[in-house]
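seq:
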Amino acid sequence: MPEWWARHRRTRTFLAAPSARFGLVVLVGVLLCALLPGRLAPADPNAQQLLARFTPPATRTGDGTLAALGTDQLGRDILSRVIHGARTSVLIGMSAVLLAGTVGTSLGLTAGIRGGMSDHLIMRLADMQFAFPFILLAITVIGVLGPSIRNIILVVGLSNWATYARVVRAETLAVRERTYVDAARSLGLSRPRILWRHILPNVSASLIVVATFGVAGAILTEAGLSFLGLGVPLAIPSWGGMLAEGRQFVDTRYWLALFPGAALFVTVMAINLLGDALRDALDPYLVARRAVGQL
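struct:
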């Protein structure tokens, strides 16, 4: 079967899943909010109007402005803060996964192709990373360097590289024994060229699935750190920070925590559903089984 038809079949399998379509629709909306928050937000997310504080959802403030999702204890528009918070979550989630994936993939490829002492050393470092408590690392780094988006990306990214390293190493150990890799070696191709042209493309499917789930985990981690006061500065809107501010008003002003929590829940669920659909579409055994069933 031609390669382009196989790719087309994977795409059809992916888009045929209702969970994939739902995840794509939600993620497109979140990405639009992250890319164009100034155009989509109805107000400045940090503009304070004390006379309009605690305005309920779908209610107009004293100056006639509609607060679609209400206002918080300082009179800030919650809809605007939720939209701007999407930029914080997407930026941290994708940057942390890019950092962790780059470090983990590089080390996993090195461990899988070289073996020996390199493999042993990298895997022991991964074991140490898994054993080290994440919250202790976050408190230490942020306590020393201070809360900022850059430091959150460093903490989340460098604490998750071991997952990528283990997955890539396992895939590399299997792929390096394939016939086409032996043929490439016999033709005199260098090890970096074999890694780049023959091994990395064949481990990319598992890497994409792990990275998809990693984005959801990074977004949740950022929200948790911001909720604990270890995340981004208070001047930057974030869903975790909004949850922390609204927790003391849950009994009387439910909307302060409801809407950022709903945005976080729907976004993470959409990413997880998208990851499930990607896994099903990229799994060669499932794809072959479906192909046989359609004959």
